[in-house]
Every structure is written in structure tokens, then in C-alpha cells.
User: What shape does this take?
Amino acid sequence: MFGNRSTKYGYSSTRAKGMMSHLISKQRLQSMVTAKDMSSLLSILNQTNYSKMLSNYGGSNLKDSLIDFALSEDMAKSMASVMRLTPNSDKTILKGIIGRWDLHNIKIVLEAKATNSSYEKISSFIIDYGEHNKLAVKEIMKEDSIEHILQRFMINSNYSSILQEALNTYMKTKKVSDTINKINLLYYKSLSKSMRQLSTNGEIASRIIRLEIDMRNILTLIRGRALSLDYAQIQEAIIENGNLPQEELKKVFTSSDSMESMVSKITIFDLKTALTQYKKNKRIVGFEISMRSSIFKLALKTLTHSVLSLTTVIAYVYLKEIELSVLRAVIKSKEYNLNSDELSELIIWKE
Assistant: This one.
């Protein structure tokens, strides 16, 4: 039994752990946070595994506007590498997880069309991977309407059913925000159906996915409370197959008359610090940061200790995605002049 797993997962597990060693350390990331300007930040980033990608766009002379191109290219390369090292029998499972990057590209295109933005303006954020890569995106953006864009993306797509429902939503409301929310909801509902198959590759793999579903559901409750909505107005956005049953989520929401009382009833994540921050600034992003921290720590522990399973590969995907998110937040902070204390809150998962 162990011999079979060694043959099947030995290479992929070893490679995933090797790729983990290239993730940016907490110490180096903190140095970026305290960097006095973009030039200093870029100098630090050039000392990491991103240096090769940065050199493709100018290296130490890289223009600020091109940094996102380098980050997106690195992410595309990482996802392609992960897919190559995954055993053929498990590629369908992994595609279901990293397929979010195809949908990420679609959502960026929809937002661009809604704001009359050009391909050039969004190209740095397109992840050049999967069936909706940069070449496909550039061509599809020539379409003259949201409807036609969604119809083009649906052609021979693994996500045609999701995009069809998204199109139906857009035709009904004519709101791109509703359309993107529908895509997010359907993606996670689709992912939740993979729980049984994921569990055969290790309980921790499915646990990571369940925690992400929990996070999405809790954020739905938090946004609903912040907007003073009724549960009936957010119920459709609740995703099944997380750790928290739908009835429990409903009870948490309907039995609370304030954000504080509601969040205090949520115990699957430690949200005490995030709640304290919310009381001061009324920004809900702290809740997401706190929950992502928990998911990050589980993924890191999994990647460090897991042996011979797809779980190792899945854990690396989560770590890499979070690293990209953090890096972009750090880089954008220099544009928006966030102070170091505020920015450090964004990287608490790098403990």
C-alpha cells in the first residue's frame, strides 16, 4: 500500500515541498512592509525567487506599472508546474481547485467591460494559464457587450454551466456585480461537491477546502450584517459542505442583533482581534485576513508534515495563492501610503 503511494505521489510531494522553499519568508516580507519606497521594495523582491520574472520586465530598472505583470507570470508558471507534477489520475481534482484562475480572468474581463477599460489596462492582472489565458482574453475583449463576452467564454469551456447561469443573472439584473457574485457562488458550490473525492486523498485536503467554504459563508454573514440585510437576502449565497451546516449559519445570523454579537458566536475561526479592529475602523477586510491566516497555517502545517498524497500539492497551491495576494497588498500599499502597522495586519498569516 505504502509502496503504491510512494510510486504515485513520491515525485509530486517532493517537488511541492521543494517549491515551498521558494516562498517568501516572513522576515523578507516584513522588510518589504517597512521599505521606504517602491524602489527599496523592488530591491528586496529582487532577492527572492521572483528575480527571474522581474528581470524579464527590466530587473532593477523595472517600472512600477510592470510589477504586476511579473507577479502574474510567476503565478501562471507555478500553476502550470503544479499541474504537470500532479499524477494523471488526480488532475481533474486539482483542475477544480486551480480553475479559480480561469474564472479570475473572466471576472476581470467583465469588470473591465463594465468600466470601459481596455485590455492593456487589465493585462497585468491576467494569469496566463488555463483555457482562458492572455491570448484568449485579449481576443474575447473585442466583443461589444457583457452578453457576448460570456457567450464567447462558454465555448468549449469546462465552466460553461457556471457561465450560463452567470449570463442568466446578468440578463435579469444587468449588474456585473451580481454576475460576478454568481460566478463565485457557483464555483464554490462546484468545489464543495468534490469533498468525497478529496477525502480519499487525505482528510486534511478536504479540511482545507471546507475551511475556505466556511470563510466564504462567514463573510456572507458579515457583509449581510454590515448592510443590515435579512437572512432571506443572503441565503442563496450560502455554500453547502463546509464545516458549519446551513442551519447553524442561519441561527448565528438571525439570533444576533449586532456585528459583535454575531461574530462572538462564530468559533471555528478566532475572530476576536478582527472584531476589535472592526469596531475601530468598520472595515470587514480584517475578518477575511484573520480567517485566511488560519487556512494558511493549516496549509503550511500540511505541506511541512504531509507525506505521499495529493494533499501536499493542494496545500502548496493555497500557500502560493496567499503569497500573491499578500505581495499585491504590500505593493499597493506604497501607492496608497498605508503605514507599516496597518500593512503588518495584512500579513498575519505569515507567522
